[in-house]
Structure formats: C-alpha cells, structure tokens
Amino acid sequence: MSSYCNLTVYKCAHKGLILPLINEYTWPVPARAGLYFVGLIWCFLGVAIVADVFMCAIEKITSKTRIVKVANPDNEKGYEEVEVKVWNDTVANLTLMALGSSAPEILLSCIEIIGNNFHSGELGPSTIVGSAAFNLLVIIGVCVMAIPSPDTRRIGAIKVFGITAFFSVFAYLWLIIILMWSSPNVVELWEAIVTFLFFPILVLLAYMADRDFCMGKKKAVADSGVELGFGNIDI
Question: Sodium/calcium exchanger membrane region domain location, by residue (predicted)?
C-alpha cells in the first residue's frame, strides 16, 4: 500500500486563497461540508454588517445639505435661507450608491484576480455579471409587479432613464466585443482603460440629461429660484 495520499481523489483538495487552513482533505465529506457551511454563514454575516455600515455612511454623505441665501424683498433681511442638497441625486445614485450596493462582488473579484496572478477565477467575474443581470432583470421585474393593478407609475427623469438603460445593455455588448472579438479570452490594457472611462462618461451624460444641458430649452428660472453649481433650485 502506498505511504502517501493522492490528492486528486479527494474533493476540494486544491488550496484556495485562504482555505483550507489545515490538511482536512482526508476528513469525511459531511464533516467538511458542515465546517465550510459554518464558515460561509460567518462570512455572509460579516459582509452584511460591513455593507450595512457602508451604505449608512454613503446615505449620510449623499444626503448632506447646505444653506444658501435666496433674495426675498418681503423678508426683513432682504433674503431667506434655504437648505439644498450638495449632491445631485443622479450623480449620487450612479456613483456612491451604486458602489455601495456592488461593493461585495467588486471586492470579491479584485481579491480573486490579485490572488490568481491576474487570471479570472470561477467566482469573481461571474458574481459581478450575475449581480448586474439580477439588477437589470429581476429587480426591475419585481418593482413593476409590486405596483397594484389600478395604480400607475411614471418615470420622472425619462432622459436619465434612457441613458442608464442604454449603458446597461451596452455593457454586455462591450464585454462580448473585448472578450470574443478584439482579444479572445484576454483583457488587454487599452480595453481595461476604455472600459473604465465609460463610467465617467455615463455619469457626465446622465448629469447633463438630469439638468437638461444641451438637450432642449433650458427651464426658466422662477423669481424665487437660485442658480447653483448643481442646477436651479426652485423654492
């Protein structure tokens, strides 16, 4: 009988980024499954706690306001103080809020890529694409079905919705181009740079659509309005 064990006959014998910590590949499969299940639940709880704190911090940042002075002849001081948001809602949703909701899968993919000598593994990219597909299809479907039958809802910022919807579909087409046509199964440096630049382009176009820049006649400023860096605030 051989004096050493052939690791190929054991399930999950290959060393991962962290686990196994000890040589437990000779243990019974039920024992190993229970051990890894407890570890998985522990990791999920940790991610949930961190994500909850992270999202609370982002909501605190994006809800920050400042006081501006608006001319008002009827007031004794000649002006009145108005509290306005510092962050534009569209920019906040596309940057910090999106980062907070997608932070777990992004970090997971980064850790796997770095630990795997910059080769994609079986978890990271699939998690990001699956999360994006879930947001695009499942969440939108649930939001539509949640509306009672006689009631209706309308999209307020239809221009912003159109831009974000276009980029949501274009992202999948761009992945097909760079992974199947341009350089099959390899992401080159220029492809990564162009892909990253699509994000500020999306934010800029969505912000311009939200403020109606170069997309039609600019809304008239009311007498009681104030012109700020983030657009017109009507009182």
Answer: 36-207
Q: Name the residue ranges covered by the structural domains of the chain.
A: 87-225
111, 117 Cβ separation under 8 angstroms: no
φ and ψ at 179, to 5 degrees?
Answer: -100, -15
β-pair type (65-71, 231-233): unpaired
pLDDT per residue over 61-76, tens digit each? 888 888 888 887 777 7
Backbone dihedral angles phi then psi of residue 198, each to the nearest 5 degrees: -65, -30
Task: Provide the pLDDT for residue 226.
Answer: 44
197 CA to centre of own chain: 16
Diameter over CA atoms, the chain? 99
Q: Average per-residue pLDDT in the chain?
A: 79
Query: What φ, ψ does residue 115 adopt, rounded to 5°?
Result: -75, -15
pLDDT in tens, 21-48: 777 777 888 888 888 899 889 988 988 8
Tell me the CA distances in angstroms from 42 to 49, 103, 124, 187, 224, one per residue in order: 11, 18, 19, 34, 55
